[in-house]
Amino acid sequence: MKFLLFIFVGGVHLLSLNSGKAIYGNGNRQRTFQEIKEEIACYGDVAKAIINLAVYGKAQNRSYERLALLVDTVGPRPSGSKNLEKAIQIMHQNLQEDGLENVHLEPVKIPHWERGEESAVMLEPREHKMAILGLGSSIGTPPEGITAEVLVVTSFDELQRRAPEARGKIVVYNQPYSNYSRTVQYRVQGAVEAAKVGALASLIRSVASFSIYSPHTGIQEYQDGVPKIPTACITVEDAEMMSRMASRGNRIVIHLKMGARNYPDADSFNTVAEIIGSKYPEQVVLVSGHLDSWDVGQGAMDDGGGAFISWEALSLIKDLGHLTMKEKKLPSGGWRLFKNRACRIIWSLSCIKDVRTRKSWLRPKRTLRLVLWTAEEQGGIGAFQYYQLHKANISNYSLVMESDLGTFLPSGLQFTGSEKARAIMEEIMNLLRPINITQVFEAGEGTDINFWIQAGVPGASLLDDLYKYFSFHHSHGDTMTVMDPKQMNVAAAVWAVVSYVVADMEEMLPRS
């Protein structure tokens, strides 16, 4: 049911914004940036209401408690596992019970890899049982394992220089950690580069910003035409120790045993829920995180937190629909004639009453779509299949958002898009001044939204403490103990404000 509000001011009628036409002047006239700024400024009260509900109100700690219940109940959720499918079914039920709309599962095929039993024991120059984690998609060793001498290198360049020494050995990479994007290439490509020079296996120093003898797993990739060799990650401490031993001229011998196996692709789902737009329901602002994890820890940080603040964003917006009409402020429109005074006009257009349930929602003009991806850890497999299914409607996507870098206290928003879109996002982030999170950084890409960004859709990611994030990333330490409910509250508030305002503005974000 649509509502019309007629206000007579200074001899000019304000018509319903649902007409989609300009309030004043030619309806086809392109708005100036100043007019867009004034429109965004009108969302100040809505942003404060979201912040108050998420950080100080009845919804505080809700995303944390929801996440804790899932990961304590299900545990880690690797691609192809029964745990992942159980988590998907639980989330499907949770989203329905939360009262969100169009809750459904979209079928996908995903990889299924299991690590099996694994061990690595240094035999020379002394006996030492090492902590390892096999890397995703790695093959296993023969049942008896592999016993071989070690070659320690610090880079691919050094491996090439010492290629004649590598044949028949286990290559150990002790690459220094600079940042994740630079260092992760050793985890992803280490086995291939070692196999090219005749190595029997590769062990990679964990890609971690900090270590307390903690191996960190992750995906690795084989290459057509290159022999597949077993590969695993080892701790920072063991990699550095073997590097010191090698520098002294010690002969290092390791016995490696891995029971890893790759199985046929498994059936799975992306999990979807929406708040359907009131004016442009075919247009979409997508908020997302991935539900799968590695098979160690609980997958609480990577990416349970991101998935659950994305759910929380929709929950907050739905919950705010129970505000009274008098509490609703004009979120958009009226900017040409009234400028800042427009923000004081009582307006109920964004509140759509459901006659059947007698509920009122703070409903944006565009559809807010939550997607909980599957098989992100294997390279965005579920997200790619979603893209293939929905890319025909790419012109209707205003913004794609992914939270997959932790839900600690946010530093701001990472964004990729046109200069005009960036300027708009900077104005939207100014609405978050009450919690002092206003910065817009570069590089909004994420594994699950890159397909859209590469096709020209603006993209955004949440940025926070990456040093802490990569200390626990893909390790046994990724548990609820890492999570902070108050920080999750703030992250959810940022996510909800940004997604709602972009979804409710009169126009989509401009593209390049």
In total, the number of strands is 20
CATH superfamily of the largest domain: Zn peptidases
Text of the CATH class of the largest domain? Alpha Beta
Share in β-strands: 15-25%
**How much helix is in the residues?**
25-40%
Explain how this protein is built.
There is one protein chain. The chain has helices spanning 33-41, 44-56, 62-74, 82-97, 156-161, 163-166, 180-196, 236-247, 300-319, 335-338, 381-390, 419-429, 450-454, 466-472, 485-504; strands at residues 7-9, 12-14, 101-114, 118-124, 128-130, 132-134, 146-153, 170-173, 201-205, 231-234, 253-258, 261-275, 280-290, 351-354, 359-362, 366-373, 397-402, 412-416, 439-441, 459-463. With 512 residues, the chain is an alpha/beta fold. It has two domains: 33-113 and 265-324 and 361-504, Aminopeptidase (3-Layer(aba) Sandwich), CATH 3.40.630.10; 117-259, Glucose Oxidase, domain 1 (3-Layer(bba) Sandwich). Strand 4 and strand 5 form a beta hairpin. Residues 1-27, 323-342 and 344-360 have low confidence and may be disordered. Belongs to the peptidase M28 family.
Task: Please supply descriptive tags for the structure shown above.
single chain, 512 residues, Aminopeptidase, Glucose Oxidase, domain 1, 2 domains, 33% helix, 24% strand, elongated, disordered N terminus, carboxypeptidase activity
